[in-house]
Design brief:
Radius of gyration of chain B: 21 Å
Strand content of chain A: 25-35%
Order of helices and strands of chain B: HEHEHEHHEHEHEHEHHEHEHEEEEHHH
CATH class of chain A: Mainly Beta
Strand content of chain B: 15-25%
CATH topology of the largest domain in chain B: Rossmann fold
Helix content of chain A: 25-40%
Bound molecules: iron/sulfur cluster
Strand order of the largest sheet of chain B: 2-1-7-8-9
Oligomer: heterodimer
Number of strands of chain B: 13
CATH topology of chain A: SH3 type barrels
Shape of chain A: globular
CATH superfamily of the largest domain in chain B: HypD, alpha/beta domain 2
Number of helices of chain A: 2
Largest sheet of chain B: 5 strands, parallel
Helix content of chain B: 25-40%
Number of domains of chain A: 1
Distance between the termini of chain A: 22 Å
Structural class of chain B: alpha/beta
Radius of gyration of chain A: 12 Å
Distance between the termini of chain B: 18 Å
């Protein structure tokens, strides 16, 4: 559960400022971005996701490294199961 | 050094390892605690000890939320849910933690309505879908996870969802570090500070470690190179006789922390006067409870808590391992009565627990090659 999963924001929700759609390894799901409300996230930004919430904004390079790290730790499949369980929107 | 070649930039890894050796005083023994369970996992998985000189010892700290949860809390949460005919929800890591009447997973096969969720928002959504049932979310985690519980309660309030409550077990890393520094058998030289907890609380709260206890603390990322660089930063401080808080993980950790997250924590939670940590005992002001303002979503205020106290089996040495006094393999139950398949202590359950990490990456591997 202490996994942090990198994802790219592809869309902000129009009706709920706390919701954004992220893409992680081609899977798109809704996450809560309320903890980064001071960051003015836009489509294209990368974030670290923890239990359904965006926790930190990171660079694309850091996101790629984090994906690699998850794979090296053998936690990439578990991370994808987690992402797939999130709401579609 | 089996992993070095798959690491990003192996040459840099080797250079950093050489730098560590150059900074080490061969006549001295170094004990550095990595506080965070994620670091413990990475250290074993990448066999980083193989890259370090033998007189530099990494001590595993208490930063695994599942490992420090007292068994009685789990029993309390489960029995409230059962009594209410409710639905007990929690993260996957909790599902295999042994309780007095079995783990949540075992209770689930016995017919109790227990659901694993990946996010507290899933538990809230379940309550929305099943308005006639009460949904309890058994919340655990350090400051990394507590803000997500806080925002979930904001949402419950905004949507007016009343058949939902939190059984809160959120704990805080600073009082745990202080308890370790104050413990009489403490012999540490420095700390590798947690990564994701620090992205919420920032670096300032660690200042007392340097100022009052004279120990360096460097917050660190999770890659092999991050951990080695953090060790270099610590060793430079020790060589120069400095004790400071430094941030190796600046790409994720802002010095001031995450302000909206801290604001949400202050709104939804208040300090518990004291809380029991498995293996460490009662630590005052070391945990969070739901504040008065959100009382109606607080399972502990809303229902009667049995207050179960369960003592761990005598032979289990989880407390010593948690404090870093004992190595996992030195526990009498390790690998015999206690394995990841049949865990006695929670340190054997979570992949971030020192016992499970040691078992999976060192013990099992040694058995395979034997
Ligand atoms: S081996 Fe089991 S009982 Fe012993 S310290 Fe580890 S988790 Fe606790």
């Amino acid at each position: 559960m202490c996994l942090a999963i990198p994802g790219q924001i592809v869309e902000r929700s129009v009706d709920d400022p706390h919701v954004a759609i992220v893409e992680v390894s081609k899977v798109r799901r809704a996450i809560n971005v309320g903890l980064l409300e001071d960051q003015d996230l836009v489509a294209g930004d990368w974030v670290l996701i923890h239990v359904g919430f965006a926790m930190s904004r990171i660079s694309e390079a850091a996101a790629q490294e984090q994906l690699r790290l998850l794979a090296m730790l053998g936690e990439d499949e578990q991370a994808m199961r987690e992402i797939e369980s999130y709401a579609i929107r | 050094m089996q992993y070095v070649d798959e690491f990003r930039d192996p040459a840099l890894i080797r250079r950093t390892a050489a730098e560590i050796r150059a900074l080490i005083d061969p006549g001295r023994h170094y004990r550095i605690m990595e506080v965070c369970g994620g670091h413990t996992h990475a250290i074993y998985r990448f066999a980083l000890a193989d890259l370090l000189p033998p007189n530099l010892e990494l001590i595993h700290g208490p930063g695994c939320p599942v490992c420090v949860l007292p068994m009685g809390r789990l029993d309390d949460g489960l029995s409230i849910a059962e009594e209410q005919g409710g639905i007990f929800t929690t993260f996957g890591d909790v599902m295999r933690v042994p309780g007095r009447h079995g783990s949540p997973l075992e209770r689930q096969s016995a017919g109790v309505d227990i659901r694993m969720v990946y996010s507290p928002l899933d538990a809230l959504r379940l309550a929305e879908r099943e308005p006639d049932r009460h949904v309890i979310f058994f919340a655990i985690g350090f400051e990394t996870t507590a803000p997500s519980t806080a925002l979930t309660l904001h949402r419950a309030k905004a949507l007016g969802i009343n058949n939902f409550s939190i059984f809160c077990n959120h704990v805080m890393i600073i009082p745990a570090i202080r308890a370790i520094l104050d413990s009489p058998d403490m012999r540490l030289d420095a700390f590798i500070g947690p990564g994701h907890v620090s992205s919420v609380i920032g670096c300032r709260p660690y200042h007392f470690v340097a100022r009052d206890y004279g120990k360096p603390l460097v917050t660190s990322g999770f890659e092999p190179l991050d951990l080695l660089q953090s060790i270099v930063m610590i060793l430079r401080q020790l060589r120069d006789g400095r004790a400071e808080v430094e941030n190796q993980y600046a790409r994720v950790v802002p010095w001031e922390g995450n302000l909206p997250a801290l604001k949400a924590l202050a709104d939804v939670f208040e300090l518990r006067p004291y809380f029991e940590w498995r293996g460490l005992g009662f630590i005052s002001q070391s945990a969070l409870q739901i504040s008065e303002r959100y009382a109606q979503w607080d399972a502990e205020r809303r229902f009667t808590v049995p207050g179960v106290r369960v003592t761990d089996p005598k032979a289990a040495q989880c407390g010593e391992v948690l404090k870093g006094v004992l190595k996992p393999q030195a526990c009498k139950l390790f690998g015999r009565a206690c394995t990841p398949e049949r865990p006695v202590g929670a340190l054997m359950v979570s992949s971030e627990g020192a016992c499970a990490a040691y078992y999976n990456y060192v013990h099992r591997r040694a058995e395979v090659s034997a």
